[in-house]
Amino acid sequence: MMSAIDDGFETGRVMLGDGPIHYRERGSGRPVVFVHGAIANGRLWDGVAARLSDACRCILPDWPMGSHPEAMHADADLTPRGQARLISAFLAALDLEDVTIVGNDSGGAVSQILVTESPARVGGLVLTNCDSFEHFPPGFFKAMVWMARAPGGYAALVNAMRLRAVRTSPLAYGMLTSGPADDELLRAFTEPQIRDAGIRNDGKRFVAAMRPEDTLAASAKLPALTIPALIAWGVEDRFFRVEQGRRLAATIPGSEMVEIAGASTFVSLDRPRELAAAIEAFVTG
Predict the structure, then answer these.
(1) What whole-number distance in Å separates Cα of residue 15 and Cα of residue 161?
(2) Domain span at residue 209?
């Protein structure tokens, strides 16, 4: 069900078997569905979608990874593989076909699982800086997974991000952009699970389930991928280095590689114009 347009985006909510998914969309044409990572939401892609919406139907869900507006059912499968099934169910619920999936960070890992396990309705894949192969998560963020698995650890991590100094530190978002990120956006990422225990538990379940076995299993199937793929990688990333993007490009047959200067993990925030242009050329071409 869709509601009024908000700043150029229509907002909607769809009820799936595991719970509600809120989303925003803008534009018309071939559908592009964006997949953010842990403790982020669809606003990560606003600058890209605003530029891309003249050519494509851009759909920005808030996946249940800790920054979504409404908790999922208590028995929902929110592991990375469960999230991939959620995306597949979401595409079916909106009756979307020939969808281009755009993934980032841990959402890129989920996107790889999606296209190798539940590829129906997917017609193209764009991977920006993300987990892959044995890097799920990369070394620096293994501590976040350990905290999510320890009693009380994840709640302590979440509550610490009430402080701007923590949000903008290297322990949180401080190294995910090439320059200072908008703190209002970072608060939009962190506040849902600060205020709501159900959302916090959803985020905890996703983060605690991160393990390289899932991305290694997906990467073993990527050489058999038959849909077009684009690797659009920020070259200043200290966690997902450009060599990792090149490795993905070499693994996926016929994929394109675009290296984006001046961008880190959140390439959509650092270089939205360049990323939108690369996605438009990929989708329309």
Answers:
(1) 30
(2) 2-284
Domains in the chain: how many in total? 1
> Burial level of 247, CB count in 10 A (0-12/13-18/19+)?
middle
- Write out residues in the chain with pLDDT < 50, as ranges: 1-5
Instruction: Residue 237: give its domain's CATH number.
Output: 3.40.50.1820
Q: What is the largest CA-CA distance in the chain?
A: 49
No. of H helices and E strands in the chain?
12, 9
| C-alpha–C-alpha distance, residues 126 and 128, integer Å | 7
Contact 246, 257 (CB under 8 A): yes
Residue 155, SS3 per DSSP: helix
How many other β-carbons are positioned within 10 Å of the β-carbon of residue 38?
25
Q: In the block, which residue shows the tokens 């990527």?
A: 222
This prediction's pTM: 0.96
124-150 pLDDT tens trace: 999 999 999 999 999 878 999 999 999
